[in-house]
Amino acid sequence: MANVVGEGAAGRSTRTLRAEGALSALAADSHATDRLRRVLEQALVFAGAAFAGFYTLGEDGELLCLAETAGVPRTLCGVRDCYSATGRSPVAEAHRGRTVWLGPRDLAAQSQSRRTPRREFHLAALPVRHDGGGCLLAVSERPGGFDADDRVCLALVADAVALPAPPVTAEGADLPPGGFSLAVDTGRLRVHDDVLDLFGRDPDDFDGRVETLLGLAVPEDLPSLMSVVEADHMTIGDRELEFRVLQPAGPPRWLRLRGRLEHGGEGRPARLVGTVADASSLRADVTDVARVQRLAAALSTAVTVRDVGKAVVAALRRPLRADRIALAELESDRLVVTVLDPPEPEAWPEVWRSEWRTEWPDAPVRTMPTLAAALREGRPATWPAGSPLEPALAEVGPGGLAVLPLPAGNRMAGACLIGWDAPHDIGADERTLLTAAANLAGQALTRARALDAEHELVGMLQRQLLPRRLPRLPGAVAVARYLPSTAGLELGGDWYDVIPLPDHHVALVIGDVQGHSAGAATLMGQMRTALRAYAVEGHPPDVVVSHANRLLVDLETDLFATCCYVDVDMEAGSAWCVRAGHLPPVLRHPDGRTEIAEAEGGPPLGVVRQCDFPMSPLRLQPGTLVALTTDGLVESPDSDIDTGMERFARQVAAADPADLGPVADALLGKALRSDDVALLLMRYDGMDTRPLRESWTVWRVPQAVGHARRFTRRTLRSWGVTEEIDAPLLAVSELVTNALVHTDGQVRLDLTLIGDRLRLAVADASPRSPVRPTSIGWEATGGRGILLVEAVSASWGTLPVSGGKQVWAEFSVRR
């Protein structure tokens, strides 16, 4: 590099020469262990970058992973840890040898998983030409991006990154015995070799990923271990934790972690540094008594029958080294199996598989006399290898079988079957463990069964308060999901609704009543009914929500409700959104860009009697996905609601809106379920055929009916309808006459043509609907108008509108 400085200095700027000198000095420093980071820092100094990172090909050859960074945290720039090497990202393009320069508009067009950033970025991706390939990624926040000198300096940095790193003796050689250093931003881990020995890993096979060692931890200890490792849950300071790691043979090994989270300095991520030591000598071997205590603790928090079965399997299978365990409820004369471990059908006898009705087998007890006898005796029974048993039991444990009746008071709640493939002698200690576990599991199973039944009843009542099915929409598809809370068995207050409105409008409603009780569920049903009634009356969205608010205040309840109401015009592709203390909609546009709608909001319903609920406009292009949800899906004890909404928006962006059912299921798949959850999705496709519309204000003059008929005739001719118009004209005469004679105020005639379907509608200021007479005498001079409309039209009816009603009739016409 020094030669380059000398030969080309005449044609280079001062800044370029200084960059060459700095990079040359770094290349000559053979003792620098952090040379790569220091090289990347030159992109910040000489090219004005806010972030610089180096991506290199991973061991699998499929991903380009972030190896080192400098500058601001990558999350501020929307940069990911890894990119597919065969994808179309700027990182992948640079790895394949093409230099990429992108401005804010280019980045916005490529954005698929986040809202439009508040700041504008310029991005540069340059190939790094060394044996493994790679990419230099730089991000600038300056308005003009990278100028000519900046680009020359970035090319110099990319060349410097490609130089071989100075040799080191071994990974982690600069760490003390038992030491480790974890970059919390990337998850890259440097450890001393003796730490890998504690985990039972060969240093030559360790890939430097913290997830590799976390995968060896006992699952029960993983949450507490993740709370130390995850950056989002940490603050600067000391850490100490004891946890267990699995061993190829024998009990798990106890390890003790001591560490401290430290700032990495300006532009560098925080690091967790410390030591890991063997703590097994400080703990006695886990006894059967301890296992029983752990089982009792697990069963005390088990809510469902499946939870009970999983707790029993976790407590018995590994200590007993069993090959299969089944836990079943006893219902009348049938053994209904709720948990199988392993769950694969091939691991169980053929006779059991022949009885499978759905996901789990269902076997009559009478087909297994040995099992029936053990249940009658009510004591654990065991059979060694080779015992003469019916095939349904012998194949469960060819090397030995144990049957644990699960007593609950004066009855049997179920049974637990434990089988071994290799010959296994059940010792006295194992019998004691089985007896204690059976008594605990039987009581827990009875309690969980009652809770399951109650929870099913609660869920059934909740579902009865929600729509049974969603209507078919013109130019759109909608799906909805509701999940009750698993934290308790009270009724929830979340609801959703889809309301078809006149003139191809659709109202999307989602809301949440405060609390979890029968009162909250009852109020939820009232609010859903009220919003639907006000919407069908023809009020605008803000009036609908305002009326619902006054109704809730008048109910004099201590509860309040939140609501989001979106009125969508299917013809125009526009919408009005009204929020009453609820989450805004998330919009996924056809190009994949996702945004959280910036809709103004009013207070929750039932808090203030007189308040404003502003309407915010939304624009929907064909293919736009509208997602509405309640806070149970986005809020958790570990993250606030804003973070949850950002995560929800990313999940919506990653979804394929072609089939909304799987999308809704996937969005609910990771819900924490500490609260009930409602989700409403609508994909706006646009109407294939736009209706033709015309309106006429009927003035109260002597020739008003004649004017209305002439307007109708001219309009139909302009639409190409020239035949079979006598019936529509007769209906116009009768409907307009009725409105003028029997009502006061303004009268309006609306004509709508969709395909070959003509709709006439006459609106007036009277809420009283016309009554179809049951009989008319020969001498009567009126009352035949509605009978004539009914006779000449395909269908007719009335519907309320704001401040009055609308009488309509439909006809089939040819254009």
UniProtKB/TrEMBL annotation:
Species of provenance: Streptomyces althioticus subsp. attaecolombicae
Ranges for domain PAC: 239-291
Xref: PANTHER family: STAGE II SPORULATION PROTEIN E, STAGE II SPORULATION PROTEIN E-RELATED
InterPro entries documented for this protein: Bact_Sigma-Reg, GAF, GAF-like_dom_sf, HATPase_C_sf, HATPase_dom, PAS, PAS-assoc_C, PAS-like_dom_sf
Record key words, sorted: Hydrolase
Pfam families: GAF_2, HATPase_c_2, PAS_3, SpoIIE
Regions crossing the membrane: none
Stored SMART domains: GAF, PP2C_SIG
Protein name: SpoIIE family protein phosphatase
PROSITE patterns: PAC
